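Illustration: Arsenate reductase ArsC.
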Amino acid sequence: MRRVLILCTHNSARSQMAEALTRDAARRAGLPLDVHSAGTEATRVKDDAKTVMAELGLDLSGHTSKTLWDVSDAQTFDYVITVCDSAAEACPVYPGTTTRRHYPFVDPSGGSLDRWRAVRDQQRACFDAFVHALAAGADAPPSYADSPAVPVA
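Result:
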């Protein structure tokens, strides 16, 4: 089973949403993935993230904000995906077997629920394409901007 880590600064919004969306896409594709999220700092999962994910039927109520060092086997991921520029800069070095990707998303914090939904929907398209590529035996797209959003059945 491949392991995926989604890394952001606070593990409070973008990485939490991306973790749930990636798990959901993998489930729909029948692709076994072990998906985690973490931050360079731990805070709390934001209520607006919980709200917009619940609209898709994805429950973040059991999620907690954690750092990379709170994740088991933190150095054994097949993919490490950073979703903000700060995390990309602070991301530790991984062994040669880890593929790093940087899929930056706007921080929806402090914005309206419509802004949260826009980021969520952009992430959904991105991580659906990510899972679709892996399910097809391809490598993860180098950039979500370069990859067509492919719905996962």
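Reading the tokens back as a structure: The chain has one domain: 2-146.
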